[in-house]
Design a protein that fits this description.
Layout (H helix, E strand, L loop, with lengths): L1 E4 L2 H8 L7 E4 L4 H14 L5 E9 L14 E9 L3 E3 L4 E3 L10 E3 L2 H13 L5 E7 L7 H11 L1 E5 L2 H10 L4 E10 L10 H32 L1
Parallel strand pairs: 1-2, 1-3, 3-10, 4-8, 8-9
Antiparallel strand pairs: 3-9, 4-7, 4-10, 5-6
Helix pairs in contact: 1-6, 2-5, 3-6
């Protein structure tokens, strides 16, 4: 299992919760650095799965079934490259819908998602599931966030998850993503952010999930060996 996060301050929260026994990778911020670093790593040696975690901004105007709030834990059901297209006044015109051969949405591994949800529940942690939107440029206005949230029924936005999902798809590696809400996507106001608290909670959630995956894989391997 490979544990990934964009920055040191996100990864440190995981390591402080007993994550030092796992292989970890700091991918860098944004889809380009993430694609490069993860691709280089997976070319060297195969892994069974990738667990990506970090912080995210929540869409208060989302058309999703649920709306995330500050410090909520969220699991990705799907990752969408939300601003990969043409920016119009009221929407993103997606390249894929124009017939171009691009991949811009990725369904997350259902088995890992189910395992993660059960692990969080068993640990007494509430969580939300939904569409995560990956953007090249973080939304700094309520208007831009509303466009993305409505068009894609987005739960939250980040800058790396779609790249992780795309690379994992190429290498046929199942992946999972968990994030904690550090801010709302609104007219930019850093005084409202709770990055330190969100990093801590994201790292804790990732540690709980990683332990559950490790236990599940160990059980599966033991049963296989006995057969």
């Amino acid at each position: 299992m490979l544990i990934t996060a964009a920055t040191d301050f996100e990864m440190n929260s995981f390591l402080q919760k007993g994550g030092s026994s796992y292989e970890t990778l700091i991918t860098g911020v944004g889809p380009v650095e993430t694609t490069l670093s993860l691709s280089c790593r997976l070319q060297k040696e195969a892994v069974d799965c990738v667990l990506n975690f970090g912080i995210a901004g929540a869409y208060p105007d989302s058309t999703a079934q649920c709306t995330a709030g500050m410090l909520d834990i969220c699991l990705a059901e799907q990752e969408i490259l939300a601003d990969f297209g043409i920016l119009l006044e009221d929407r993103i015109e997606r390249f894929a819908l124009a017939g171009l051969p691009v991949k811009d949405s990725f369904i997350m591994d259902s088995s890992l998602l189910s395992l993660a949800g059960q692990a969080l529940t068993d640990n007494g942690r509430e969580f939300l599931c939904g569409n995560f939107l990956t953007v090249n440029c973080a939304s700094g206005t309520h208007a831009r966030g509303s466009i993305l949230a409505r068009q894609f029924a987005g739960l939250c936005e980040n800058m790396e998850g779609g790249a992780i999902a795309r690379v994992c798809k190429h290498f046929a590696v199942p992946c999972l993503e968990v994030r904690c809400i550090s801010n709302l996507v609104e007219d930019r106001n850093v005084e409202n952010w709770q990055m330190r608290e969100a990093c801590t909670l994201a790292g804790q959630a990732a540690a709980v999930i990683a332990a559950a995956i490790r236990t599940s894989c160990g059980t599966h391997n033991n049963l296989t060996n006995k057969k």
